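Batch manifest, entry 17 of 40.
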Amino acid sequence: MAAMQSILLEKVDNQEPFWEIDQKIAKLLSELDGKGNSSRAPIDFLRDTMEGYTAFRKIQRYYELQNKGQRRTVEEAKLFNKLAEDTTIQPYLTTTTQ
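Output type: structure tokens
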């Protein structure tokens, strides 16, 4: 009797994440143009995207100001402190403050 061999099948997803984003953007544009079913999903997608982008820009600015250290202006120091206290981005900030 021949030995049985097992075969392992694995699904490989070759689509890039950009493809999914492009599809969502196309749907959003269609909805905003009045050609969709006018659901809230496209608006929610846009809101989530903009909130994520805004948080990213805040984090990016925080690290720019952190890297300036003592060379920050008074206004930059105020902004740095305000960003450090922002609860929406705190989990993504280092504990090092200068």
